[in-house]
Structure formats: C-alpha cells, structure tokens
Amino acid sequence: MIQIEDLRLAATLLREPSLSAAARALDVTPPALSTRLRKLENELGLALAKRDARSLCLTPEGERFGREAQELLAKIDGLCESLRHDDQRLGGTLRVAAPFGYGRHRIAPLLARFSRRHPHLRVQLELCETPWPDRRDVDAVIHIGGVRDSSWIARELAPNERWLCASPAYLQAHGVPGSPGDLAHHACICIRENDEDVTLWHVRPAAPAGKRRTESVRVTPAYVTNDGAVARLWAEAGMGLVLRSEWDAAVGIAQGTLVRVLPDWRFDSAPVMLLVPVRKGRSARVQAFSEFLLQEHAGGR
C-alpha cells in the first residue's frame, strides 16, 4: 500500500534535479533515499526513475506518479487548512521562490515576519536566477518584470523603474552622458537574466509625456554577468555604466557609491510581481501570504 511518505518522495523527485538534491530536500541520506525508491518501485512493479551519481531522470510513469502525488499532497494540505479554519491557524508548508537579490534583501525578512505570525506554518524560500517560469511546483513566485500567462494569478507588489548609474570616479574620468546617444561611447555593464536582448536599451523622455516616442539604444557591453549584485559591484568599482532596478540602485545612491545618470530619461520598468499558480490561488496560506506582501509593500517597508 502506498504511504504518504511515498507521495512526498515522488513529488520531491519530480522537482529536484538529482538524487542527492532530493535527499537533501527530504533530510535523508542518498543511500536511504535510493533504498526507499527501490522499495516503492518493487511495490508498484515499474521503474520510476533512471539515476546515476549526478543526475536523475524520471520515466514517463515516474513523472505521472510525481504529478499526481503533488496533487494529492496539496489536497491533504488543503484538508488540514480547512480543519484549522475555525481557530484561524495556518498550517502546512508555504513554498516561495524569488530572484537572488530581491529575495535575499526584501522577501526573506518579510517571510521571517510572516512566519512569526503563523508559528504552525512551515516556510521554504528558494532563491534562483529565474524563479519564473522555471518553478511551477511552488505556492508563490516573486518575479521582476511583466508576465502574460493565464496559468498564473499576477499582482503587482511595487513599481520598479530601471535607473542608469555609475560611480563618481567613473563619471569624473569619462564624463557624464548628456543624452542616450552618448552611451555608445561609454563602457556599459549588462545583466543577462533571461533570453532578452540585453544590449538593446529602450528609453524615453520623462516629461513632457507623449511628445517623443521611445528610442532604442544599442550598447556594446564591456562587461556581462548574470548576477545583478556583481553588476552593481562592478559599477561601484568604476568599471562602467549599469542599468539596475530602482530598489537596488537606490541603496548605492544613498551610500554615495553610485550616481544616477540621465535622470530626465526613463528606461524600461520592471515591476515587482507576486505570481501564484491558478490551481493554488484559493489556499488559505497563500491568500494570507499574498495579502501580507501587498500590505507590506504598500506600507513602503
């Protein structure tokens, strides 16, 4: 007979890239997990996964079992929540994915505050380079940028312009750009976070609105990284101009390590979004977490 531990095993194997990663997620050793997997396969009479020391590949039967195990576990969690509804306690596990920088500096402290309000709730935060659309097994995703996907409920947490910045030392040595066209003569730092063309920057005058259309500026990157923190560090070290999210650039500007460049021009914005899978949108813990995040961001914390 299939046990709830078997369901958790199958669901974990579906979302983790290797047997060792699945073992860490379940807090067991890889040999113990391998033994449990073999036992489950023997009981079912079919192979669920092909594995070696470095990778794990589910069979079609394993993928189906993992997906249905996820759905059953979600129903069990939902049942537990409904039984606790009368005393207003939230239980189960809240799984959140967020990008490295924003997740570390903004979401992690908020999750700590939220968990203190709901001590019966288990919280998991996964920081990754592209939390959307890669992570579809979570309860909520924090995403920076627009989203068009009907399988997600999207709510804006905060507006977020992109500011062009450089260090005082860089500007003193190379001059301050007076217009977007001047960027062709400057060292630029680009952040490659997805499949977008990171060397094509779109910019428009801040005011008066609507009198001039958006311009496209092609920059030749002197430095490219997939990590926003590294890009900001390079800019603060005087290596070039960087186009960075307002929430992060504002810190450097306040500290005097960065100066905003071309403040009368507006680059493409990237709002901070809360994404919830449609199938999980009615969960009590997800609804409570969503309202909490909206209130905290509205309060400017």
Automatic annotation (TrEMBL):
SUPFAM superfamilies to which the protein is assigned, alphabetical: Periplasmic binding protein-like II, Winged helix' DNA-binding domain
Q: Does the keyword Transcription apply?
A: yes
InterPro entries to which the protein is assigned, alphabetical: LysR-type_TF_proteobact-type (IPR058163), LysR_HTH_N (IPR000847), LysR_subst-bd (IPR005119), WH-like_DNA-bd_sf (IPR036388), WH_DNA-bd_sf (IPR036390)
Ordered alphabetically, the record's keywords are: DNA-binding, Transcription, Transcription regulation
Gene Ontology MF terms: DNA binding; DNA-binding transcription factor activity
The residue ranges of the HTH lysR-type domain are: 2-59
Q: Which residues form a coiled coil?
A: none
* Cell cycle recorded as keyword: no
Q: What Pfam families does the database record attribute to this sequence?
A: HTH_1 (PF00126), LysR_substrate (PF03466)
Record family assignment: Belongs to the LysR transcriptional regulatory family.
> Which PANTHER family does the record associate with it?
HTH-TYPE TRANSCRIPTIONAL ACTIVATOR TTDR-RELATED, HTH-TYPE TRANSCRIPTIONAL REGULATOR
What is the recorded name of this protein?
LysR family transcriptional regulator
Which organism's genome codes for this protein? Bordetella genomosp. 12
